[in-house]
Design brief:
five-stranded mixed beta sheet
Length: 68
């Protein structure tokens, strides 16, 4: 499990995946979301620019990320 400390109001889903190197590139992150490979708060998330805020939990590539 990874804890990501949010320094702004939010971070977009694809930016988080790229920043944490879960996706190799921004394009790869977009494909992961489009293909339903990412969950946000236990639900499959298809919005690439979903705004993640403190308390959200993202699951991708067998990695769980908690936004703190």
């Amino acid at each position: 499990m990874i804890e990501f400390a949010l320094e702004e109001d939010f971070i977009e889903l694809v930016r988080l995946l790229k920043f944490l190197h879960i996706a190799e590139t921004g394009g790869h992150a977009k494909i992961m979301v489009e293909e339903g490979m990412v969950k946000l708060n236990d639900k499959t998330e298809y919005r690439k620019r979903a705004k993640l805020r403190k308390g959200d939990v993202v699951e991708a590539q067998e990695t769980k990320i908690t936004i703190i």
